[in-house]
Sequence to fold (232 residues):
Amino acid sequence: AQTVTQSQPEMSVQEAETVTLSCTYDTSESDYYLFWYKQPPSRQMILVIRQEAYKQQNATENRFSVNFQKAAKSFSLKISDSQLGDAAMYFCAYRRRPGGGADGLTFGKGTHLIIQP
Amino acid sequence: DGGITQSPKYLFRKEGQNVTLSCEQNLNHDAMYWYRQDPGQGLRLIYYSQIVNDFQKGDIAEGYSVSREKKESFPLTVTSAQKNPTAFYLCASSIGLAANTGELFFGEGSRLTVL
Fold:
């Protein structure tokens, strides 16, 4: 079974600075997706960024970027120029490519990101 | 606007009662999911359905039941057999397997409290 581990229950960063959230995962599959979702106080889950395992290039979405290390099974999220609206729970998630077996996403336990003004 | 609607947002139930949480989507997605969220536990998969009239157990299906009679709807029943039902429940959907980008789209959730 796949597992996703987020080792930082809580992180704090000053507004406008950069912060990196860590995520490792365990799988025997070679083709899969990785995601970072954000859950603000409203509790709506919002997709931040997505990475396909077969792509070597790290995904980037505006101030959000990932460092995907496939051999190390590591998938960290970097948030640049942190803003107050970035304060939320961040979840790392894994999904095997379609093709059978269990479906859905496997989530880590989350990292609570605090932005200090 | 396309999206996923969950109702009710807040629900209180007495011990021993069954309760049904509604999930409706107008995204024309084939697959639908139910997750449970507890503090410090992340999200855990309860049930999922990839097509109408078919569904599969997830990691924590005991004490729950679902149905998928229509593509748009995937209600979750929390039965009296569920030992610790107080939690936040999230419904999600995704495009069918053939065109899947992997992403799940989520509703706003339902908070169930057992008194």
Notes: The interface with chain B takes residues 4, 9, 33, 35, 42-45, 47, 50, 52, 91, 95, 97-99, 102-110 of chain A (CB under 8 Å).
